[in-house]
Amino acid sequence: MEQKRRKKQQQKIAYVIILATLLLAIYLSSQKQVLGINLIIGVLFGMIMSRTKFSFSGNLRGPVLFNDFSNTKLFWRMAVITCIGINSVIVICTLLGDFDYIKYLQEPTKVSVYFLFAAVIFGVGIGLIGCAGSGIIRNVANLKADYIVIMICYFLGSIAGVLVREVAVGYFGEYSLFMPELFGWPMAIMIQAMLLYLYRKAVNYAEKSECEEDITYEQERSEASFKKHLRLRNDS
Prior knowledge:
By secondary structure, the chain is an all-alpha fold. It is built from ten helices and no strands. The chain folds into three domains: about 1-105, no CATH class; about 110-170, no CATH class; about 180-235. Helix 1 (about 1-30) packs antiparallel against helix 2 (about 35-50), helix 3 packs antiparallel against helix 4 and helix 4 runs antiparallel to helix 5 (about 100-105).
């Protein structure tokens, strides 16, 4: 009985949130039509991510690093839905005549050297924890202490990134760092594959070292326990 009452209460809250989202979408559409559409697409994609409990990084982490293909099907579904969503936005923008937004979606933006290093560090981070912003927030909502710390660092790092972007210090001005433009698509794919291979080897080495340390610890613990047992036996 209690479970049914709780379920009905959750459904009421869900209906209120859906209604509020629709009203917000209508308001945004009155300001600029594409905003309301983007909101609806974003909410739907967020619901899919919350159901699968993984982002793109989390779904790639398993097969790339650990030969775990259990979530591969979910990843491809998300990729297909994302492609459909982006192309839908492009079609809608074309019908509305908003060609600047289409140009923003289709062309790679110019970024500074700061963002190149930040992207590498951030990519390693989300690869290790197995989730990006949505996964972090979900785990924070579950009151997981380690993810609360990650969330704080995520927030502070975002502030630093925004400040760097606004300041654009020194000779690190904005210029293209889109890898296919620099090296061509074949070389860019080879570099990415090599980086993934090295990343996987590093993770396997770290796991092997950790396992060896655990085995050594267990052996030392067993030897100490055995010696203690012999000593007690001799004393008796």
